[in-house]
Amino acid sequence: MKQLRMILMLLACSIAFTGCFEMVEEVNHNSKSGTGNYKFVMDMSGMKMMFEMAAAMDTTGQMNMDTLSALSKEFVTKVDGLSGISNIEEISDLENFKFGVSFDYKSLAALNVAAGQLFEDGQISSGGGETFFKGKKKKFERLDAKGFNGMMDQMMGGMGGGEAEEMEMASQFLKDVSYTMIYTFDKKVKKMSNPQATLSGDKKTVTLKYFMFDEERGGANGTVENIIKLKGGWF
Q1: Do the strands 177-185 and 21-29 form a parallel or antiparallel pair, or are they unpaired?
Q2: pLDDT by residue (tens digit) across 36-67?
Q3: What is the pTM of this model?
């Protein structure tokens, strides 16, 4: 994702101000019908002050709100017209610096195709056939379809590479960058496979926060994968 790499470059330049940057994946899933709503948001609220300062000093006119809004538009373009995807909404919250997309899906198969497009470089294609989500009536799985650690390495490479010492320093400043997954179901959750996941008080929402560049809270020592079993099943 070219826009995402640009944002990470911007993030690396903001280390004097903040290391806060979060990607949020939300799924509201109906286990009976297999339908639901998916939302992907990049929360850059911690970068707002830095961006505004950079825009004020920019003489080229390239640092502006249109640059960030283009990110949301790119997300919409990637999923627009896909079979089984409807009610697509662009999320472009300039006040809170949150950008992304939301849509309904009629099956996990349709969601997998859409997710494949969101996390793929370049223009819309026929899809790579990756499986991000699997499920039955009482079971929901989040898989690491593209190899999350590998994807982070590619992003760092997109920031220009550099000496090992420089890359290590960048990783230290980026250690609070996170990918948060929030899954809400129509039934109560019985069991979760990922030990880092937490369950809400009503036992219907699972939250997992994966820190992409911090080995103690994620990185190569963690995973986004999670098998969620719902109550009342036969498994």
Answers
A1: parallel
A2: 999 999 887 766 666 666 666 655 655 556 66
A3: 0.78
